[in-house]
Design a protein that fits this description.
Elements lengths: L27 H23 L6 H8 L3 H7 L3 H21 L9 H14 L3 H14 L7 H24 L9 H21 L6 H16 L5
Helix pairs in contact: 1-2, 1-4, 1-6, 5-7, 5-9, 6-8, 7-8, 8-9
């Protein structure tokens, strides 16, 4: 998972001259931005509940308080809307991790950040359900979210592999550590725990389980300095 800081918020309008408008009635770019956010939020909820294929654009329009024509003005297709939903999900993850540190995580810190992300996800049930439902559908190569899913897992594995490679370079991990294998297993554990947690949230503590696994990995591969 990337730890680059995203550009957050929207740019201020180029023309800052006060306009003769009633307060609380944004128009133009600001109003369109708020409408898009409302649409994306509604789509995310419906995709999480029903899946991508079973969610019609008409349902998203109704949930957004728009006509279908109004919805299509902002998103030309359901595929475009899915892309916006997934982009928002990734942005929230990056923002959550970026807020923890002034500089990108390095070495074992990358794994510590993943544990923290799992802890945050336990408070974002809708987001976890969205990912799990879409992941189940997107293993199909024809699904519009397939490339995103492959990229999502590749970025996560690459980030965790890099963390262990840096730990070796910093002298905090055994040079023989199988970095890529551990990274891949870590991602698989997080995905599997999300599914178990959705089925029985009262029985599964995702963050505790991931932290316990990380402790086992550290016991085996961290040096005294780590």
């Amino acid at each position: 998972m990337s730890t680059r800081h995203p550009v957050t918020g929207t740019a201020a309008p180029a023309d800052s001259t006060p306009a003769r408008r009633g307060r609380g009635r944004p128009k133009g770019a600001a109003g369109a931005g708020e409408t898009r956010e409302r649409i994306v939020a509604a789509a995310a909820d419906l995709f999480a509940e029903r899946g991508f294929h079973a969610t019609p654009m008409t349902g998203i329009a109704v949930a957004s308080g728009l006509s279908q024509t109004g919805l299509l003005h902002h998103f030309a297709s359901k595929e475009d809307l899915l892309a916006a939903v997934l982009e928002q999900r990734d942005t929230r993850d990056v923002e959550a991790l970026s807020a923890r540190r002034a500089v990108p995580a390095r070495g074992w810190e990358v794994y510590d950040d993943m544990v923290e992300l799992v802890r945050l996800n336990a408070e974002r049930e809708a987001l976890v359900r969205l990912f799990t439902n879409l992941a189940g559908e997107a293993v199909d190569r024809t699904h519009p979210g397939h490339d995103w899913l492959r990229r999502h897992h590749a970025v996560a594995v690459d980030s965790l592999t890099r963390g262990l490679t840096e730990a070796v370079a910093d002298g905090t991990a055994d040079p023989e550590v199988p970095a890529w294998t551990i990274a891949r297993q870590f991602v698989a554990l997080m995905d599997g725990l999300q599914l178990q947690w959705l089925m029985a949230p009262e029985e599964v503590d995702m963050a505790a389980d991931v932290a316990a696994h990380l402790a086992t990995v550290r016991d085996r591969w961290a040096t005294t300095a780590g």
